[in-house]
Design goal:
Layout (H helix, E strand, L loop, with lengths): L11 H24 L6 H8 L1
Helix pairs in contact: 1-2
Length: 50
Amino acid sequence: SYTWPRFEIKTPEVIDRIRRAALLAGKALDVALDAANPGTTTTEIDDLVI
């Protein structure tokens, strides 16, 4: 039998935290993409992002 996953209704505070986390992740991705050039190691990119 198949059961539907449970959904949780998010509070405005949780939605705000999710939104801020997504913005931060987007900024980290922008930094990583800008740094991703031939000769750049993944360690160097990690150091910029983390």
